[in-house]
Amino acid sequence: MAEQILMAAAILTFLGVAFSVLRLILGRTVIDRVVAVDTLTVVSISLIALYAHVAGRSIYLDVALVYGVLSFLAVLAIARYLEQGP
Amino acid sequence: MLELFVYLLCGSILVSGILAVRLNSTLAAAVSGGLASLFAAVCYVMLGAPDVAMTEASIGSGLSVPIFLYAIRRTTEKAP
């Protein structure tokens, strides 16, 4: 039962990756693409956490932690760039 | 099953690279380049190298995208 739940979680996470990449490809404005990349960052953090549970190694959670902090900084820099804009 | 996920992530890296080359806006191209390094970091974790993934996450996505944006802002006269 647990394996089926984990497999369903992995498939749903990859569906999130697929739809976000689709939004990135089709995106009409730049802001759509930036929001798609931010969504992909959150989905990737959940993917790393899920794989840390599957592999049974808690060192992978540190990667997810570092990634969360740094993606926040990157999105903040993008927002500051868009605000100062033209 | 793990190999299938790694192949899907490699396909996402390819899509991000092609988008970074073909997009018209420089901001969207820089963001797509950062996205390629994001997928590479997840791929490194799945292949069993968490230290390489941490370095890739900190430098490839956390440091290079703001430096690109700083350079774009300093080198363009008008809107990006």
Features:
heterodimer; A: 86 residues; mainly alpha; 3 helices; 0% strand; B: 80 residues
Biggest sheet architecture of chain A: none
Largest sheet of chain B: none
- In percent, how much strand structure appears in the residues of chain B? under 5%
Radius of gyration based on Cα positions of chain A: 15 Å
Overall average residue pLDDT of chain B: 86
Helical amount of chain B: over 70%
| Helix count, DSSP H or I runs of 4 or more residues of chain B | 4
Record field, number of beta strands of chain A: 0
Summarize model confidence as the mean pLDDT of chain A: 87
**What is the terminal-to-terminal distance of chain A?**
55 Å
Reading the helices and strands of chain B in chain order gives: HHHH
**Strand tally of chain B:** 0
Largest interface: A-B, 36 and 35 residues
In words, what does this structure look like?
- The complex is a heterodimer of chains A (86) and B (80).
- By secondary structure, chain A is an all-alpha fold.
- Helices cover 90% and strands 0% of the residues of chain A.
- Chain A is built from three helices and no strands.
- The radius of gyration of chain A is 15 Å and the shape is flat.
- Helix content of chain B is 82%, strand content 0%.
- The mean pLDDT of chain B is 86.
- The longest helix of chain B has 21 residues, at 2-22.
- The A-B interface holds A 7, 10, 14, 17, 21, 24-25, 27, 30, 33-34, 37, 40-41, 44, 47-48, 51, 57, 59-60, 62-63, 66-67, 70-71, 73-74, 77-78, 81-82, 84-86 and B 1, 5, 8, 12, 15-16, 19, 25, 27-28, 31-32, 34-35, 38-39, 41-42, 45-46, 50, 53-54, 57-58, 61-62, 65-66, 69, 72-73, 78-80.
Offer a concise description of the structure.
The complex is a heterodimer of chains A (86) and B (80). Chain A has helices at residues 2-26, 30-55, 59-84.
Topology of helices and strands:
The complex is a heterodimer of chains A (86) and B (80).
Chain A: H1 2-26, H2 30-55, H3 59-84
Chain B: H1 2-22, H2 26-46, H3 50-61, H4 64-75
